[in-house]
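Worked example 3 (structure in, sequence out).
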């Protein structure tokens, strides 16, 4: 878990830095509409939360993630809402 947290931190630190310094960040990674960058961000934050990695040092990522999970497209894309979803949940393993 320490190894995973180390590398997760490396990636999230870099991303937080990029977003803060880009000048393009808005409600989402690039402006005020979701882009592919946000699509890739959501699973990273999900994994961080799943493995109990604190997101406190990443206020920009936290703000963007909150925008994503409240957006109708992201809500509709949740795995458990898909037609082929089973009752199995990866959280059952932990």
């Amino acid at each position: 878990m320490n190894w995973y947290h180390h590398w997760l931190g490396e990636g999230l630190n870099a991303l937080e830095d990029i977003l803060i310094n880009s000048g393009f960040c808005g409600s989402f990674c690039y402006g005020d509409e979701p882009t592919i960058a946000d699509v890739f961000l959501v699973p990273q934050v999900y994994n961080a939360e799943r493995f109990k990695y604190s997101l406190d040092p990443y206020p920009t990522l936290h703000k963007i993630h909150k925008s994503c999970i409240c957006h109708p497209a992201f809500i509709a894309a949740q795995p458990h809402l898909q037609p082929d979803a089973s009752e199995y949940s990866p959280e059952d393993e932990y």
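Notes: The first helix runs from residue 2 to 22. The chain has four helices and no strands.
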